[in-house]
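Module 6 notes. Inverse folding takes a fixed backbone as the condition and produces residue identities as the prediction. Think of it as a translation problem where the source language is geometry and the target language is the twenty amino acids. Below is one complete input and output pair. Work through it position by position during the lab.
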């Protein structure tokens, strides 16, 4: 089993997501508690269902030189 280290904010989110899943806390209310949009809350719930606490672990994204995660932007194709 993989060990996951979560920050305090991520631990608080897990408590809210567990309440959503176990006690049917409405998404809107969960979003308000966590300070995120309802859409993002739905994403968090889906990821948490799929991967458990590891889904909430912060991941640092490394961007390329033009700042895009998906390759060079149009400006770099001249």
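Target side of the pair, the amino acids:
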């Amino acid at each position: 089993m993989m060990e996951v280290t979560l920050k305090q904010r991520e631990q608080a989110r897990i408590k809210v997501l567990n309440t959503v899943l176990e006690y049917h806390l409405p998404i809107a209310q969960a979003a308000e508690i966590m300070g995120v949009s309802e859409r993002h809350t739905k994403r968090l719930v889906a990821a948490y269902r799929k991967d458990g606490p590891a889904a909430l672990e912060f991941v640092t994204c490394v961007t390329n030189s033009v700042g895009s995660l998906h390759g060079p932007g149009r400006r770099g194709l001249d």
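Reference fact for the lab report: Confidence is low (pLDDT under 50) at residues 59-66.
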